[in-house]
Amino acid sequence: xxxxxxxHYDDRIPDWHTVQEPIPYHVIVLMVDGTVNYSIDGVTHRAxxxxxLFIPRGTVRSGSNTEATHRKYTVLxxxxxxxxxxxxxxxxxxxxxxxxxxxxxxxxxxxxLFQDRWEARPYHEPICLxxxxxxxxxxxxxxxxxxxxxxxxxxxxxxxxxxxxxxHESIHINDLAALIGRSPNxxxxxxxxxxxxxxxxxxxxxxxxEASSLLLESNMNVTEISDYLGFYDTSHFNRVFKKVMxxxxxxxxxxxxxxxxx
Length: 262
Prior knowledge:
Arc Repressor Mutant, subunit A; four-stranded antiparallel beta sheet; 262 residues; Jelly Rolls; 2 domains; single chain
């Protein structure tokens, strides 16, 4: 059947993050409090409290805190033998994020799984395995409502790709709305629901991500980087950079190069 590799309880870890890489195991997650940004095969998802996630083996995944810390349970597991038809029936072939009914009961099962795994008392292995099978069965059987409909994810992905290609430019929300044939207000709300950020917030993340590399790896100064990335002026760049990175560009350079900020 299944082999449980690890059970974690993340309790407001200040700098929680995972690297972007294909994962060699299946993962189930129960969000208890706060929010988390997951990148799943290149698409950003903002998981919220009360949501259940299934991330299949082989998914290119990374994760990080949002603007605050969070609490969640995570279970890493694999099929002991490939071709196990009974086990495969309980798995999903794709990433799944959903609100699940009977949340309080599911939370108690995750709590019990974590406790038994951590205490390692006699017969904890079959007990933990039974709880994992139950949780997978609940996710398969219970009526679920996807957090975002497939069409909204499709439209959000179109907007996301446009921003990834043109984030150096000045992009107006009307242009993005026209791209998907929707109103500006719908475009903003739909994108935030699917991605977890507004289009402008997502564009700022892309710009700051490149700026952080340019600050350390190029000879460009802050003004040149600001102009290159399409900011109004250096002050605007500094404000956005600090909001996203939680430190100013100068502090970012000093901390990464081992210098003492003045």
